[in-house]
Amino acid sequence: MTPAARVQTAIELLDSIIEAARGKGAPADRILAEWFRSHRFAGSKDRRAIRELVYAAIRACGPVPANGRAALLRLGEVDASIVPLFDGSNYGPAALEDDEQAAKGGIAPEWLEQRLAASDVTGDEAAAMLGRAPLDLRVNTLKAQRPTVELPVDAEPTAAPNGLRMATGTQVEQWAQWRDGLVEVQDTGSQLACLAVDAKPGENVIDLCAGGGGKTLALAAMMDNLGALIAADTDRGRLSRLPPRAGRAGATMIESRLLDPGREMDVLADLAGLADAVLVDAPCSGTGTWRRNPEARWRLDEAELQKLAATQAHILDLAAQLVKPGGRLVYVTCSLLDQEGAGQFDAFLTRHPTFAPHPLTLPLGTPRGHGVRLSPLSDGTDGFFIACAARA
Ligand SMILES: C[S@@+](CC[C@H](N)C(=O)[O-])C[C@H]1O[C@@H](n2cnc3c(N)ncnc32)[C@H](O)[C@@H]1O
C-alpha cells in the first residue's frame, strides 16, 4: 500500500471508530482486528502503519472528531508528513478542500477536561494519560520467584514486589512461562491495588468485582492458596474466564460466585460479616487506562459517569455488609476523577461510621483524600485511586 492509501484506510477506520464510540458500539481494537481479517492484502508493515496512524489520530483529538478526515487532519497539525498525502492520488484521500477543518486537539471532551481539572489533573499530568503504556508482568509466586524466573527477554523489576517491565508489544502469550502460569500480564498499578489488600494465608477474602480474575489470581498467590477466596461478579462472561486462568496459575483456592445485579446479597448472605478483607475493584470510567484505550474518552458522557458513581456507591455499601469487625475494605478504581475516587470514598466513610480510613504503605503513589492516587506521569502506571477502610 502507498503511504496515501494507508492514510485513506486510517480515515475509513476512524469513521467506523467514531460512529461506534457515539453509538457505544465495538471498541477500536475490535474494529481494526476485523478490518485486518477481511483485508488480507494488507501486509504486516501496512497493518502496523495503519494501526499507528489510527491510534496517533485518536490521541491527537480531544473531543470526538466530526469524521476520520478531520481526525487525520488534526494529526497533520502535529505530524508534517500527513497533509501532503491528501493529494487525490489513486486509493489516497481526496485533495484538501480550501475550508476543510481539522478536528480539535486537547486531552478529552471539554466537560471531561473540566472534571479532570477539578481533580487536579492538568498539564503534563493530563497529557501523560494519553502516552504509551509499558508492558508489565507479575511473577506468580505459586509457581516462580522474581529473582530466579527465566524469561525469553530482558525485564526490569518494578516497584511492585513481583513485578517485571518489558518492551511494549512483547508477545508474552506465546511464551511457555505464560502458558504454564509462571507469569501474568498485569499493570503495576493493579499489582499495587492487590498489595493494598494485604491478604494473608488462612484469611477469608472476597474479590467482589472479580471480572476475569486478574486481581483474584494475585490475591491467591499472596495467600499461598491457603484460606478462602471468593471471586464474585455480575458478568457471567468475565467470570467464566477465571477458571482456565486459575488452572494455569495453580490457584486452587478460588470459589466463583455469579451475582444478580441489585440482588447480590442473595448469593453472598452466608458470608455477611465474616470477611477479613473485601476488595472492591469497582466498575468505573477507566480514565486511568486511556493509554491503552484512548478512544474510551469519546464513549463517556455525564449521564454514564453518574451511573457509574451510583454503582460504585451501591457496591461499597454491599461490601460493608461483608467485612467482619476488625476487617478491612479496599476500594479501587482505575480512574483519576475524584468523583469515582477520593470523593466516592469520603462519601462511603460518611455513610458508614463504623469504618475508618486505614493508612496504606505502597511503594508508589501520592496521597489523595483518604487514599492514594497512582498516575501515568508520577508513577509510570495506569491511573488508579486506592484506599482502605478498617471496620471497628
Ligand atoms: C474494573 S472491573 C474488575 C476487573 C477485575 N477485578 C480484574 O482485576 O480483572 C469491574 C467489574 O465489576 C463488575 N460489576 C459491575 N456491577 C457489579 C455489581 N453490582 N456487583 C459486583 N460486580 C459488579 C463488572 O462486571 C466488572 O467485571
From TrEMBL:
Q: Give the similarity note.
A: Belongs to the class I-like SAM-binding methyltransferase superfamily. RsmB/NOP family.
GO MF terms on file?
RNA binding; RNA methyltransferase activity
Superkingdom of the source species: Bacteria
Q: Which organism is it from?
A: Qipengyuania marisflavi
Q: Which SUPFAM superfamilies match?
A: S-adenosyl-L-methionine-dependent methyltransferases
Q: Where is the SAM-dependent MTase RsmB/NOP-type domain?
A: 102-392
Q: In its UniProt entry, what is this protein called?
A: RsmB/NOP family class I SAM-dependent RNA methyltransferase
Q: Which Pfam families match?
A: Methyltr_RsmB-F (PF01189)
GO biological process assignments? RNA methylation
Q: Is Heme given among the entry's keywords?
A: no
| Active-site residue list | C334
Its lineage opens with: Bacteria, Pseudomonadati, Pseudomonadota, Alphaproteobacteria, Sphingomonadales
Keywords for this protein: Methyltransferase, RNA-binding, S-adenosyl-L-methionine, Transferase
- List of residues binding S-adenosyl-L-methionine: D233, D260, D281
The coiled-coil regions, if any, are: none
Q: Which InterPro entries match?
A: MeTrfase_RsmB-F_NOP2_cat, MeTrfase_RsmB-F_NOP2_dom, RCMT, SAM-dependent_MTases_sf
